Every structure is written in C-alpha cells, then in structure tokens.
Amino acid sequence: MDSRGVIKYSTRIDAADLSDGQRTCCKLPLRWGTLVFGVFFVAAGLLQIAMVYSPDHGRTGESYGSKLSIWILMACMVLSGAAGCLGAFFEVRIPVTFFALMLFLQCVLELAWFFCEDGNNLKEIGVMVWNEVMLGKRSSDNSIAVDLFYIMLSMNVRLWACGVVSSYALELRIAGKAVWFEPIEDDDDEEEGTSERRGTLRGNEAIPTFSEGYGSTGEAGGLASQSSKGPQSP
Q1: Which DSSP letter does residue 178 get?
Q2: CA 190 to CA 18: how far, in whole Å?
Q3: Are 123 and 70 in contact (CB under 8 A)?
C-alpha cells in the first residue's frame, strides 16, 4: 500500500471535538462567555473553601468519601476556572481544553459525592422518585430530594459551561490560534536580522568561490595572458 495514501489522525485531545456548534453565549461572544464562566468557577471554588473552613459548616455524619470528593471538586473548580480565564484572555487553546475536561470531571465528582452521601439509601431514592415524580407528592423534609436537586442543577450548569467552552475551542482552532504560549520576537530585532542576512548574501554573490584544486594560479595567469594578447590568427 502506498504510504502517501495512509490517513494519519491526530492523537491530541482537543475540546473542539466536543463542540455543539454554538456561536454565542447569551448573545455574548464565546470568548467572553468562557471568561465569565472562568471567573464564576474560580469565585465559587474559593467561596466553598472559605465555607468549609468556617466553624458552623458541615453535616453530622458525613462520610470520608463525600468529604474527599468535595475537596477535590473545589480544587478542580479553582484550577479549571483559572485555566479558562487564561485561555480566553490570551486566546490559547490548551488552557481552554483543560477547562472543558475539568468541567466533565466535576460532573463525575458531583455524582461521586451524591453516591457517597446517599448511596446507602437506594431504596429510599427509588421511593422518593416514585412519590415525587410519578405521584406528584411534594415533601420539604426529604434530604435526599434536596441533594438530588442540587446535583441536577450543578451538573446542568457545568454541562452548559462545557458546551460554551468547547465551542470556543473550535473557534480558536478555526482561527489558527496558538496551541500554547509562543515567544514573540521584537520587530526591531527581526528587521536587523533580515538586513544582516541580506548583506551576507550580497557579499557572497560579489566574491566568487572556487573549489579546491580548481582554477590554480598558473591556469589563472595563463588565461589572463591569453586574454591580454587578444585573438590569435590561425
């Protein structure tokens, strides 16, 4: 098989592959939508960390798994939001992709927190879904219903943000923006380097070079004497 006919696929992970094709976020450009979500998640993560450290925070009987998932979730929120702000401000693709992937990870952590907190009450969850959804009953003292509503709302916001960020990643790919930060050369240095290269090329053109063993001194003198005598008659 001809090697030129082989199709090579990139193995690079890019959030642009997850894009749903939207071009705006609430009538805002995708760049500013990504920046707003980045600031939102940074602020939310820092506020949740402050609330966890407050003395009146915490449920009684929280499991180790739920506490661990909450701490990882808060760290992911701060890191992903900072990466989103960085990618949107400088128009760099890797931080934007990192933001989108971390949003998916946050959804997984939300589900992990729910099952660590209420996973032992699967029967009660089934009864609650039957009473609340199928029968239409409304109970305000059901902690499982509150946790489930929080999970659904939180995941909905994160998936919405992931759609916006992925569409912005596609926009950056189409525009040919940098994958990562690249060094920027000064215009003055570039002009000086160009003029130096031009001067070197002109100097090389003005001075002919001969290979070793070609055009010796005797041959050059003979050619010069023949040219000075002029054409000879036969």
Answers
A1: -
A2: 39
A3: no
What is the per-residue pLDDT across 84-142, written as a single tens digit (0 to 9) for each? 999 999 989 999 999 999 999 999 999 888 888 766 667 777 777 787 777 777 766 77
b or e along 56-90 (b: 16 or more beta carbons within 10 Å of the residue's beta carbon)?
A: eeeeeeeeeebbebbeebbebbbbbbbbbbbbbee
Question: What is the C-alpha to C-alpha distance for residues 60 and 223, in angstroms, rounded to an integer?
Answer: 106
Residue whose C-alpha is closest to residue 88's, from 14, 165, 27, 16:
165
Q: How many CB atoms lie within 10 A of CB 11?
A: 5
Q: What is the percent of the chain with per-residue pLDDT over 90, rounded to a whole number?
A: 30
Secondary structure E strands in the chain: 24-25, 28-29
Residues 6 or more apart whose Cβ sits within 8 Å of residue 45: 74, 75, 76, 77, 78, 81
Q: For residue 21, which of 155, 157, 158, 169 has the smallest C-alpha distance? A: 169
Other Cβ atoms within 10 Å of 95 Cβ, number: 24
Residue 179: how many other CB atoms lie within 10 Å: 13
End-to-end CA distance of the chain: 66
- Measured in residues, the chain has a length of 234
Residue 138 phi/psi, 5-degree rounding, is: -125, 115
25: β partners: 28
